[in-house]
Amino acid sequence: xxxxTRAELEAARxxxxxxxxxxxxxxxxxxxxxxxxxxxxxxxFARPGNRFWPVLHLSGFTPRLLKxxxxxxxxxxxxxxxxxVARASARADELTAEEYREGGRLLVAKVARLRPRWLAxxxxxxxxxxxxxxxxxVGPQERTFGGTRVWVLPNxxxxxxxxxxxxxAEEFARLRVAAEARPSQA
Length: 186
Description:
Blueprint: H1 6-11, E1 27-31, H2 36-41, H3 52-58, E2 79-83, H4 97-114, E3 118-122, H5 124-131, E4 139-145, E5 148-153, H6 165-180
Helix pairs in contact: 3-6, 4-5
């Protein structure tokens, strides 16, 4: 992986990172917002300590461990990536509640356009804030967006010490099983 200077990373602040999407995905994963390294590289979940890519593989969503630079392979597995808030920041705590709410509104429109079977928000706090669901917990939600069901997953950031890669993979795998079921079985 290319090493970036502090100045190069700072130059990526507020940069937008394109979604990895297609129509009719099984699961559209939704991060909180891109970090500076993701914005600098153009790859989602690019920070080496982020466990998204290993957990995606451990849970059975991908047949092998993908690198962030291989993100464009995701639609071939019926998967995609977007974010609640589009702009890059060093930390999620730099985002305002209004940015989360506006991001939630834009996400609903995106889901209506793309029609994934499941929207998987990685980060319960982001989900709670974006959709004013204060009591939401990790797992499937009652809320739907049209025909799209919603699942909240643990945040794969290395800072989330409450979840190990193994316990995260178990939760991701629960979603994978639901996503693979025929819609009438889910």
